[in-house]
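job 3f2a | input accepted
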Amino acid sequence: MNRVLLIGSPNSGKSSLFNRLTGLNQRVANFPGITVDVASGPFAGMPDVELVDFPGTYSLQPISGEEAVAVEFFQRALTDPEVRHVLCVVDATRLEKSLYFTLQVIRECQKRGKPVSVLANMADVLAVNDLAFDHAGLADAIGAPVLLVSARQGLGIDLLLSELRQKLISQPAVSSRWSETPDELLRGSAHQLAQRFGPRGDVLVQSQLRLDSFFLNTGLGGVAFFCIMFLLFQSIFTWSAPVMDAVETVVMGMGATLVPLISNQVIADFVADALFGGVGAFLVFVPQIFVLTLVIGVLEDSGYLARAALICHRPLKVFGLTGKSFIPMLSGVACAIPAIYAARAVDSPWQRVMTYLAIPLMPCSARLPVYTLLIAVFIPDETALLGLVGWQGLALFLIYFFGMFAALVITGVVSRFASGAKSELPFVLELPPYRLPSIRPILRMAINRSKHFVTKAGKVILAVTIAVWVLGYFPNGGTDLGTSWLGMLGHWIQPLFEPMGLDWRYGVAILSSFLAREVFVGTLGTIFGIEGADDNMLPLVEQIQGSGLPLGSGIALLVFFAIALQCVSTVAILSKEGSFRLASRMLVGYLVTAYLLALLTFNVVEALV
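job 3f2a | predicted structure (609 res):
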């Protein structure tokens, strides 16, 4: 298998170009021995050639931990005999920023005899703004082909594929022009080459400054940030509701059709209670994961997320964090594991630890099914302000805000009173140009994230629901859940949860959720299914409402899940990226804090209602 590396600096359009070159046939894996996501897929029209999307970095002289991993991956990949060519993506509208890294890449490739082609992206932007770019002259100057392409519109892609196909066959000789050039001379050369051959970007800079004057304004920028975040959480309920209803209808229809066809009563009960009652109850909430990932992808691709990080730097600094902590923290809204990896971009070791403390409190997508279930039980599906504000969306926004607020309080307290090396490095952040988001790659990312969430969580949920069903069904065939093995276990642990107004069923669901938070929904679905919901096996909300769960208990559960660190995978990654001592302290500390706050919440709410 011939391999081609696709590399480039962040915000150069590399990922969009990768999606354009490979289409839908992609996969994501970890490069052997290195903890970093690497996307790969066959070229469109060249199924025997694999394109590997190299993690973005600004320089081969790494500053952050994230860049160090990316550079190590690149150096190791160049030693692979199956790597036949390297494609280096540059932003043609910001040529000087990209050229230094490009010359470093060319130098390393020349040392190892790997041919390089430079892909000057953003050809469509140059055309719209009537900007001249002498890519042929640049190619002669650097001794490598320079192809003008547009990942958004597909310009130059056919020429790229044609030339790459020929080079893979002929394997041209590799020049040694830059192989011994030190970084200092490469930096100077990059500046001179950009001035000589690159476009004048005054028009683009002026356009960006006009938008920045609004989004980075002290007053208006803060209001815009709050409104965008509010709309993010409103959209999770509003946009996903029709799809959620459709999924529920399909699952219920499948259950109603399939279960009566099964003659064996034990198997029929298992399919109804465990599969449709447990796993089916979880699948209903997957559309919200899709919407959440979609909206965050739009914000990132538009260039706004970097502005949000800049806006947040000053307030985050008060809590021992940095503006660079914002991106990992917001990534934690999708999943804590990639967010912990993203914290490598935080330069200061102390602020990186503070970021680790904050990430598990971010309301990740695994919590979303739990939040959605409890909010649907207690908050009416009604709107206010002429339908602009939904009460359920507002409740979700508040519980998300509560988790973020708790993260800031905890990091602020630890940063103020803990001893340790608190040296700070200068805050340097690139502001990418504003662009219209590329919808296809964002949609693909949202689909892949949803599929990954289902396959990863689905295995755990299926295993747990089978175990819960077996414990709840035997030894009495499901006739009395209270005297089953599950009931015996639940009554044994019930005293721990009774002070919060929760019976043994919720105690069992909480314990099972330590494998993964979202298992809480599947476990409750299985338990309530066993209790005799043959005609109502999926709408778990109605069953919980009919069970008489107090309002204080529901709010207490929300608080508990907002604070508790209940993800085994997150603890494992924290142990690897940070230390076992840090991970174990966070696990115990957050669990104790979550329990005490939930207990306090229950008593306060019950005293008020």
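job 3f2a | The mean pLDDT is 80.
job 3f2a | closed
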